[in-house]
Amino acid sequence: MLVQLFWVYYVLPLFGLTLESAFTVGVIALGVNYGAYGAEAVRASLTSVASGQWEATVALSMSWTHKIRRVIFPQAWALMIPSLANLLVHLMKGSAIVYIVGLNDFNFELDQLRRVTSAWFSYAFVGLIGYFAFALVLTQGMRLLEVRAKHRLGQGLSLREILSPAPKVPTSGVQPGGAS
Predict the structure, then answer these.
(1) How many CA atoms lie within 13 A of 9 on its CB side?
(2) For 15, how many CA atoms within 13 A lie in the half-sphere containing its CB?
(3) For an engineered disulfide with 67, which of 62, 82, 94, 97 has Cβ 3.0 to 4.6 Å away?
(4) DSSP for 103-129?
(5) Rounded CA gap, 28 and 22, in Å?
(6) pLDDT tens sequence across 39-75
(7) 97-120: pLDDT as tens digits
């Protein structure tokens, strides 16, 4: 990530491609880096859809776009959400590196707070709580997306059932006494 950031900020202007702001440099460097990981998560999810599903779309003579949109992608989407959730949290943590090119981020603002107050402990504590809260919100949002995607495939409870005051517990088909 650091090498890509340096390339975008220092090397591309040598080839005549000057970017207007540090924000643009940060977005491009983070986008290229995490976009590659995201593309791999999407590819792995698409290939993990059962081969019978692919064969069924061929047997039904579906066009490529129709088979991807209606059959393959909904199944792959439910599989790729956990990987994309991890990637999103990594992106949030990795965005702190863009301070190198002069972009003010959460760490920069915390450092400014530390310089005014000279309180090292509060600086670390506020940073820890801040990053934890950001990661928790992102993770919970992606978990809700995953629940919704799995419910639409008939593989779990709905968001309404999960978020209700008395959530339902999914039954696994096991009867009391151990017999199924």
Answers:
(1) 21
(2) 7
(3) 62
(4) ---HHHHHHHHHHHH--HHHHHHHHHH
(5) 10
(6) 999 999 999 999 999 999 999 999 999 999 999 999 9
(7) 887 777 767 777 777 777 777 666
DSSP labels, the chain: -HHHHHIIIIIGGGGT---S-HHHHHHHHHHHHHHHHHHHHHHHHHHTS-HHHHHHHHHTT--HHHHIIIIIHHHHHHHHHHHHHHHHHHHHHHGGGGGGGT---HHHHHHHHHHHH--HHHHHHHHHHHHHHHHHHHHHHHHHHHHHHHHHTTSS--HHHHHSSSPPPPP-SPPTTS--
Is the Cβ–Cβ distance between 41 and 87 less than 8 Å? Answer: yes
Q: Which long-range contacts (CB under 8 A, 24 or more apart) does 154-163 make?
A: 155/78
Which amino acid makes up residue 89?
A: V
Confirm if 79 and 48 have CB atoms less than 8 A apart.
yes
| Amino acid sitting at position 165 | P
- pLDDT tens-digit readout, 27-39: 899 999 999 999 9
